[in-house]
Amino acid sequence: MGFKEGFLWGGATAANQVEGGIFEDGRGLANVDLMPHGTDRYAIGTGEKWIDRIDDHYFPSHQAVDFYHHYKEDIALMGEMGFKTFRLSIAWTRIFPLGDELEPNEKGLLFYENIFKECKKYGIEPLVTINHFDCPMHLIHKFGGWRNREMIDCFVKLAKVLFERYNGLVKYWLTFNEINMILHFPFVAAGLRFKEGENRTQAMITCAHHELVASALVTKLAHEINPENMIGCMLAAGSYYPETCNPEDYWKSICDDRESYMFIDVQSRGYYPNYALKWIEKRNAEIPFAENDVNILKENTVDFISFSYYSSRVSSANPDKGKQTESNIFASVVNPYLDTSDWGWQIDPLGLRITMNEIYDRYQKPLFIVENGLGAKDKIEEDGSIQDDYRIEYLNKHIQAMKDAVNEDGVDLMGYTTWGCIDLISNGTGEMEKRYGFIYVDRDNDGHGTFKRIKKKSFDWYKKVIATNGEDLDN
């Protein structure tokens, strides 16, 4: 037994973390362009602090790894690995530089069209995230980001242009990346800047509801334009374990899991569950329902559930939780049974199998793992090679856990795209040294380097994994 025929092996990126070319060919300024490297990054991402100037910080995304000019070379390398799919995202401001123009930017549309055609040349199916933490700054200034319902029309217009222009080139789409990140990184996830004294939960729920309605409308539109289109939602996943068998810890783990699943419940089931309504009510907030929102959500649920998985998490009812770790922005109690990465992210392959089972049991829809990987410091040896056995070991164990979930537990899995198939800028820290890829990019934390691409040892290993449909995982 193994993965089904046609399983979609590949890798994943995001526009703001790989493309660069910030103002080329008419591209406008987005929220992700104002995320600097350094100590201000987290405060800006959470909406606690903000800047509007781009001349007094270093912004790594402005050049990133220059995929904008290297995409043919990079896709050829993906083709050499045997990729079946490549997950990438659209930079909204390449298509509509301000976000609310009447007509799209043809040069931006052509850029992505050329990428998709290049993918098809190698038999690679594009998996396109319409919004991967990307909001035009003009719309943030004009509307306050996703707190304003006007954003829905802007986003639907963007999606309509994409669906029509790339009809026949793109079949698999995701609406919003890690939509639950609104509760943790709201400026990045929704262009949200908090006002002094406001109810922050209300602001975040308002943004989330508008994104949920937009996601449903876009799902409807995609199916109308081409019934073959497959639309997914996307969750920052990782199951919570109770710190102890104290019932209070177990209850806290249930509550923490629900906070992650809350918006995916709406996208998959078509309505807000009762626990979510109570969670919102207890925080003196309310969902800004407009006429027909209930029907829009109910009638336009997603076709599949995609998610990122880097680590499990630990819940404690004790307010003095002790030592904390970070994993993809989420704070968690340290799990003493797990190893950690160079950046303190805990490594839990079995947690992937657990998470897959929980999500599949919950929704009974096909799953797609669209982010999973190890951020590590890679060293170029004297002979020019990069011996990243630690990455191979990490991915080996996670793919084996994935295989167990499919073969032993009956989970329906469509595909798997490792995060950062080519080295890219870290969303959380803005670093280049936190490398994920099978392909090394000569670029450092300060923006120096030649952009030269170098295959790591993991390149040939993953090529073999794909060629054997996951049967040969040996190093």
Keywords:
alpha/beta, globular, two-stranded parallel ribbon, 16 strands, TIM Barrel, single chain, 475 residues
Describe the structure.
InterPro entries: GH, GH_1_N_CS, Glyco_hydro_1, Glyco_hydro_1_AS. The protein has helices spanning about 15-20, 40-45, 65-80, 90-95, 105-120, 135-145, 150-165, 185-190, 200-225, 245-270, 275-280, 295-300, 350-365, 390-405, 455-465, and strands spanning about 10, 85-90, 125-130, 170-175, 230-235, 240, 305-310, 315, 325, 330-335, 340, 345, 365-370, 415-420, 440, 455. With about 475 residues, the chain is an alpha/beta fold. The protein has a single domain, classed as Glycosidases (TIM Barrel, Alpha-Beta Barrel), CATH 3.20.20. An 8-stranded parallel beta barrel has the order 1-2-3-4-5-7-13-14, surrounded by 4 helices. It has a two-stranded parallel sheet with strand order 6-8. A two-stranded antiparallel sheet has the order 9-10. It is globular. The two termini are about 20 Å apart.
